[in-house]
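To illustrate the input format used throughout this study, we show a single complete record. The first block contains the structure-token representation of the backbone; no residue identities are included at this stage. The design step must infer an amino acid for every position from geometry alone.
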């Protein structure tokens, strides 16, 4: 089959041509062998490095191993894996045989995994040995290779990456015994390639269904078009591979460009991230606002000459964090917004055009509109719901027709985010549609109040939610994480309220301030506002 996509980057937006007969794994890996990059390092992980030739072999072995387990085209393969070279090998190996990998969050509960296995109807699950004990209760006494695993009506095999577990299949043994060559399945650009589960701000799991063509589209439109990602780049993403943002950062983008990716299996603590920045010297670093805030609070963080740009997504980046990062590190953070439904970033600041406090401008290749509750365009400068149109949209949520119809409207996708577009075309985040507060009849953006709080020198993080006063009227309440909890006091709370009043319109200040040790977050660092509302 014609294997590779092509792009005309001289036009704006780039014209991406993807053949009808197409397999994303072939395009992302095998192409580099034909273009002479076989000996170049593709992946650096905690165990060592892997060249493009070695990665191609591992992808083929993974695909053949799945075939040996009976996996066929369109069947789901769940991946509960840490970020090592095994993740891209299995993800792309499944895609190469026409199966559908479903990477999921590695920080969930057994009940969550039970739901996801049933909902996806995965035939095989591959789990890191260090995570197996978390998954085991959801398997209800699985039988390894038995025809049916008790308690899981669709699952046929449990494969463990690492130290073997009784009754499971060893991934090491599978790969060692698998052939190193593999013909790609006869897939098309519009075949389903993979799913990504999202819980969004509601906490409900939804499987977003993505196509083979979507991966290379994000690589061309954002990675090449905005980041200017090159073959000589070294990319390090603190956001993990199971997350749409991390999947692009650590798999699609570097592999499409022929660059090198740095993977980290452990949690993205400040010390772990700083060590990679110092030792591996990435040129591109991808984080989230809460991580950037924590890094800036670390006195040991030093600029590196190698770093040319950083990216942020997941939540809007406060202006103060961007300014302080630029001052400290000598390079910019490109704040952007994407979604699991759109696969990656479609609205972003860009090199040479960074305006902190905004999410930048539309990524060429996408269209945006801001509409009111009736779907009509809001007047210039008005606040409304952001809708996006582009070639990387998921086709639907698996088995959730009502939610699919509420989100996907023909070529347009509802983001669930409130935005305004200023007179110069920069988009300014106003909060989630279900997070906006109406105070005294006027909309208040929680993000705007949070940004004001974070600009205070004692504040590390902040989240603002609705709270009812003695008259049952909605007012802002702030939950604040301090750099040093010993400073917590009513005097500081009063100081913070006055600080916000000095920065914003007085009606926006938080009437209540609660000091907390931490904020509930997803594995990717996004604040779980629905949990704060439940408080």
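Output of the design step:
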């Amino acid at each position: 089959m014609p294997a590779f996509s092509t792009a005309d980057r001289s036009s704006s937006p780039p014209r991406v041509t993807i053949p009808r007969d197409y397999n994303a794994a072939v395009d992302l890996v095998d192409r580099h062998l034909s273009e002479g990059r076989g000996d170049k390092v593709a992946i650096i992980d905690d165990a060592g490095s892997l060249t493009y030739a070695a990665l191609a072999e591992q992808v083929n072995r993974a695909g053949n191993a799945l075939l040996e387990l009976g996996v066929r085209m369109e069947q789901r393969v769940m991946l509960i894996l840490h970020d090592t070279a095994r993740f891209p090998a299995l993800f792309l190996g499944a895609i190469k045989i026409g199966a559908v990998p479903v990477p999921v969050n590695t920080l969930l509960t057994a009940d969550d995994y039970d739901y996801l296995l049933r909902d996806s109807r995965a035939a095989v699950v591959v789990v890191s040995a260090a995570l197996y004990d978390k998954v085991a209760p959801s398997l209800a006494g699985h039988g390894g290779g038995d025809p049916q695993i008790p308690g899981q009506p669709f699952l046929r095999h449990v494969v463990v990456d690492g130290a073997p577990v009784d009754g499971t299949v060893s991934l090491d043994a599978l790969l060692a015994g698998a052939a190193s060559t593999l013909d790609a399945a006869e897939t098309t650009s519009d075949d389903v390639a993979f799913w990504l589960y999202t819980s969004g701000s509601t906490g409900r799991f939804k499987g977003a269904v993505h196509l083979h063509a979507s991966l290379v589209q994000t690589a061309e439109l954002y990675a090449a078009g905005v980041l200017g990602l090159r073959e000589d780049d070294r990319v390090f993403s603190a956001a993990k591979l199971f997350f749409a943002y991390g999947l692009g950062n650590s798999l699609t983008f570097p592999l499409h460009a022929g660059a090198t990716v740095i993977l980290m299996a452990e949690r993205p603590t400040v010390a772990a991230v700083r060590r990679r920045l110092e030792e591996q010297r990435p040129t591109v670093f991808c984080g989230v606002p809460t991580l950037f805030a924590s890094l800036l609070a670390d006195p040991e963080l030093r600029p590196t000459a190698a770093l040319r740009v950083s990216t942020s997504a997941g939540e809007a980046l406060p202006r103060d964090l961007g300014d302080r990062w630029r001052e400290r590190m000598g390079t910019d953070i490109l704040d952007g917004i994407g979604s699991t439904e759109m696969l990656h970033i479609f609205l972003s600041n860009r090199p040479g055009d960074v305006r902190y406090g905004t999410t930048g401008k539309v990524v060429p290749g996408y269209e945006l509109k801001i509409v009111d509750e009736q779907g009509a365009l809001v007047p210039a400068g008005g606040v409304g719901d952001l809708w996006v149109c582009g070639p990387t949209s998921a086709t639907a949520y698996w088995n959730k027709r009502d939610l699919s119809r509420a989100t996907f409207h023909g070529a347009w996708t509802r983001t669930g985010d409130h935005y305004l577009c200023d007179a110069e075309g920069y988009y300014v985040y106003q909060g989630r549609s279900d997070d906006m507060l109406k105070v005294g009849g006027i909309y208040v953006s929680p993000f705007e109040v949070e940004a004001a709080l974070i600009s205070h020198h004692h504040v590390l993080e902040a989240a603002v939610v609705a709270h009812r006063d003695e008259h049952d009227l909605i007012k802002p309440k702030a939950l604040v994480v301090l750099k040093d909890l010993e400073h917590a006091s009513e005097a500081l709370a009063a100081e913070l309220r006055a600080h916000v009043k000095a920065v914003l319109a007085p009606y926006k200040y938080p009437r209540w301030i609660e000091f907390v040790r931490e904020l509930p977050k997803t594995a990717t660092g996004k604040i779980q506002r629905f949990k704060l509302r439940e408080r």
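Structural context for interpreting the output: Residues 437-534 form a domain with the GMP Synthetase; Chain A, domain 3 fold (CATH 3.30.300.30). The CA atoms of residues 44 and 350 lie 27 Å apart.
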